[in-house]
Structures are given as C-alpha cells and as structure tokens.
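Name: Magnesium transporter MgtE
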Amino acid sequence: MRNSFSSAELQRLLHTNDHKGLTALCEAAHPASVAHAVAEFGLRDSVAVFDQLPLHVATDVFSHLHTAHQERIMEGLSRRRLTGLVSSMQPDDRAALLRSLPDRCRDAILPGLAQAERDDILRLMAYPSHSAGAVMTSEYVSLAPQMSAREAIDTFRLVAPDRETVYYAYVLDDDRKLVGVLSLRELILARPESLVHEIMKTRVLSVRAEQDREEAVEIIARYNLLALPVLDEQDRLVGIITHDDALDVLQNEHTEDMEKFMAIGGRHETGTYVNTPSWRHFVNRAPWVMGLAVLGLVSGSIIHSFEDSLMHLVILALYMPMLADTGGNTGSQSATVVIRAIALGEVKPGDGLRIMFKELKISLLLAAVLSVMAFGKVLLLSHGVVLPVGISLYSLGLAVAVALGVQVVTATLVGAMLPMIASRLRMDPAVVASPALTTVVDITGLLIYFTTARLLLGV
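Structure predicted for Magnesium transporter MgtE:
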C-alpha cells in the first residue's frame, strides 16, 4: 500500500479517461487517502470517480467519507450504482448512512436492496441514535458449544470473508443466548479435538442494545477490547461493537462535549464544519448566545443598583474586570475537571459532597494566593490616587482582596456543583458549562464585589 497519495494524479487520470490507471492508483492507496482527495473534488468529478472504480474499491472509499460528502455524492449516482454501494457497505455503516438521509432518499434506496439487507438496516435503525445498538454491526462469528476446535477453525475460514472482524468468536446456545467467547488465538493454539465449551471463557463483558454508546466505548477502552458483544433483553446476541466504531463514537462524543461546552446546539458530528452552511452554524449558535445576552442584562441591573457606590468611589470600576475574569477562569477550571471525571466514570452523581469538599479546599488555596496578588496590585496601580475621606489605599486593597477571594471560592464551587446537578438530573453536564457558567459567575461576582465594598468601605 502506498504511503503517499497525489490527488492531482487522481484528477489527471480521471480527466484523461485512464480507467485502468485510476483503478490501479486507488487500489494501491489506502481508502482513507482516496476519500480525502475525492472530498476536495467538485460534485461532477467525485461522482465520476465512483462510477469508474470497481465496486469493492468504491465501497471502501465511500465508507471513509464523512456523511455530508456521502449525501452530496449520492445525489449524482445512478440508482443501480448507489444500491450496489449501500449493499456492499458494512451493516453499521449503511444503517448510519440511511439514518442520516431524508425520507425520500431512504425510500428510493431501500427497495433496491435484498430483503435480508433491508430487514437488517431497519432493525439497526430502530435503535436510538445514541444507543449501543445504533453503532453495532450484525456481522460476527458465532460457534456452537459442542463444536471441536477443528470444526470451529473451518467455520472461521467459511465466514471470515464476510465479517468485519474475526478476532473473537461468540459461543451461542440453541436460543442464540451468549454463553461464552473465544479468541482466534486461543482457538488456533487449542488441540484440534478440544471442544469449544472446554476452552471458551464464560465471563463475557457485554452491553445491552439500549445502553448509551458512551458506556460501551468506556468498557472497550477500559478492558482493551477489540470488540464488545451487544445483547437484547433476553441475553441473545444481536451484534458487536468493534474497536474502530468505538473510536468513531469517541471522536463524535468529544466533538459533542466540546460544542456543548461552548453552548453550540444542533447535530454534533466530527468533520462537518466546512460542509455545514453558514446559516446552520448561525442557527446552532444563536439561541444560547441570545439567551445569555438577555441574562447578562442582570449584570447591568446590579451595576445600576450600586451606581451611588461607583460615583462615590470611581476607582472600584478599575478592578471589576479582574474579578470577573478570575471568577470565570476558576469556575471554568473546576467545571472542566469535574465534567471530565464524570465522562470517565471517576465520579458518580452521589459523590457530590465529596467533590464539593475537595473543590472547597482547592478554592481556599487559590483564594489565598490570588487575594495577596490582588492586594499588591491595588497598592501598585492605585498608589498616589486621591481617595475619599475615610478610605485609605490599604482599606481599598483589603476590600478588593476579600471580594476576589470570596469570588474565587464561590466560582469554584459553582463550577463543580452545576455539572454534578446536571448529572443527577440525567442531563449532559457539558450543557451547564462555559459560557453559561461564565454568565452566572459574572452576576455573582458583581454582587460579591459591591456588597464587600459597601460593608468594608462604607460606600
């Protein structure tokens, strides 16, 4: 397989109608490299590539395209070619593709598929999009408990060409209930006359089809699995999640968490930024931003209510940004580490008090350091400033330092508390994070700042 791939060479072969050269180039390169090049072509050239490539090569390349590119190319392909591509795809890939298509496109493709393929697609599509069943493949190697190792290896040879992965074989009873698992390595090393039930492992890690796909990925990552069986409510094996599909889920979940963390709505998919219209980006971002802007009016109301204090001691305005930024930073840090701990399963909803106590200790240490820095900053920046009678530079520095310290403790606890509450309410913790957190911390920070100034300085 070639280590490098030239998209210019591919386009030259396409435009000179060198079908043999184009096929040879794509067969020698990794399908992902070809897909990357095709994604940069115009619609006409992209469709021409898939029309000319052999079906097995075209299917591999098509499977490596992002959904947006797949949908665009499908519009230009003939129905016969499109049906062939979809039929040749892995079950989980084609189910995911058809799930993303409009009903009219899906209805045009399904009648051209074999009955067994249609039933399999509709069964996989019936699972919720974020469930383990939605990302599993229905192709796996199954064995009977009474098979000998020799018969099991013959079964592997027979079914392997049509299976996505053959690293594990799953042992099923007459009711298709999962009773054991056997790795290909263990099978090869076993004596030919050994029975499957004698060498299989009976303690099998698995997930239910209705479980969240993140839970399945967590199990695969924690136990270094190449595949994870998926069971229905009767413990019957309905599919497996392979390690490559788990990686795709991990990337999509990371994208979703990052975008939710920044209050971006809509579909959260990896690799769709360039192909998503600007209007859709606006629709995804606008609601949260507008809502937070309205909530930000509360900050203005607080400043207005303390207008007399600002008029009496204008220098207070100089240190407002410092308190707002510090509170936002410490709150975001706290929220980030707690959300990450929740995502990795290190923290459960019932650990709220333990987490709050831990963050309280951290916030007190941060408050002590930052308060000293704030006090020094006031003495340095405001040296020589004329202050109202009865207010000294040291009392001003003390007020700012105390306000900053209280703000740091409050922001840190709020940052840790909001994700924990969201998790207990079965909401996505990332939704309550920045910039929603920043807005809440800004409001509490202003209240703390002006209340402290009024109590300590009498303004």
